[in-house]
Write a structure and sequence with these properties.
single chain, Lysozyme-like, globular, binds zinc ion, six-stranded mixed β-sheet, 201 residues, alpha/beta
Length: 201
C-alpha cells in the first residue's frame, strides 16, 4: 500500500477500495489521527451509512473486521467524524485530523436471555465480547473485541499515514469528545498503537 494524491493505493494485489462519501468539505490540516469504532457489526453497514447524505457523517477510512480497507474521503479533504470536539486549544477536530473507523459494535448490553446485544438489539457472539471498564466511566460493561487482522490493517495504514502527514499525536474520539463518545473504547490498545504509529516505542 502507498499514498498517492491523498489516496491509498494497493500494491501487489492488496485491495483498497474508494467509495466517495458526499459528507465532506474542503480544508484539513491533519495534525492528529483520530480512532473510532462504527458501533455496528459490518463493513457494508458502515460504508452505506457514510454514503448516505442524511448521515451527515463520514470518515477518511473504514477498516473491516477481515482487514479490508475502504477509503471514503481523500486525505486532503475534511471528513465529518469527530463532531463537537476539542483538544488543547483546538475546537472542531475534523479540521485538524484524519478519521479512521474500525468496524466494531462497541459497547454492549446483556439482554435478559444472557446474550450480548448492540444498541439496535443485534446479537454479538459471546466469544467476541470482553468486559472492561472504560477509563471515562465507572461501571464495567461488555465491549466488542477488535480482530487481529483488523488491528494489523489499521496499524499498517496508520504507519503509512504518519509517514506522509507526520501526526502530532494519535487520539481516540473518547479523548476529544469525552462524556459524549466512548470510542474506540477500552479494548482498543491506544497506547501501543500510538507508539507504533509515531515510532516512539
Ligand atoms: Zn467516533
Amino acid at each position: 500500500m502507498k499514498i498517492t494524491n491523498h489516496r491509498l493505493v494497493g500494491e501487489s494485489g492488496e485491495a483498497v477500495s474508494f467509495r466517495k462519501s458526499p459528507n465532506q468539505s474542503g480544508g484539513v490540516s491533519p495534525l492528529y489521527l483520530i480512532l473510532h469504532f462504527t458501533a455496528g457489526a459490518t463493513l457494508d453497514g458502515a460504508v452505506s451509512w457514510f454514503l448516505n447524505p442524511e448521515a451527515q457523517a463520514s470518515a477518511h477510512l473504514v477498516i473491516g473486521r477481515d482487514g479490508a480497507v475502504v477509503q471514503m474521503v481523500p486525505f486532503n479533504r475534511r471528513a465529518w467524524h469527530a463532531g463537537k470536539s476539542a483538544w488543547g486549544n483546538l475546537e472542531g477536530l475534523n479540521q485538524y485530523s484524519i478519521g479512521m473507523e474500525l468496524v466494531n459494535a462497541g459497547k454492549l448490553r446483556k439482554r435478559a436471555d444472557g446474550q450480548w446485544v448492540t444498541w439496535s438489539n443485534h446479537v454479538i457472539p459471546a466469544d467476541e465480547v470482553s468486559t472492561a471498564t472504560h477509563r471515562n466511566e465507572n461501571a464495567e460493561a461488555g465491549w466488542h473485541e477488535y480482530t487481529e487482522v483488523q488491528m494489523d490493517a489499521a496499524r499498517r495504514v496508520a504507519v503509512l499515514l504518519n509517514a506522509t502527514y507526520r501526526f502530532t499525536d494519535v487520539l481516540g474520539h473518547e479523548d476529544v469528545s469525552p462524556g459524549r463518545k466512548v470510542d474506540p473504547g477500552p479494548l482498543f490498545p491506544l497506547n501501543s498503537f500510538r507508539s507504533i504509529v509515531l515510532g516512539r516505542a
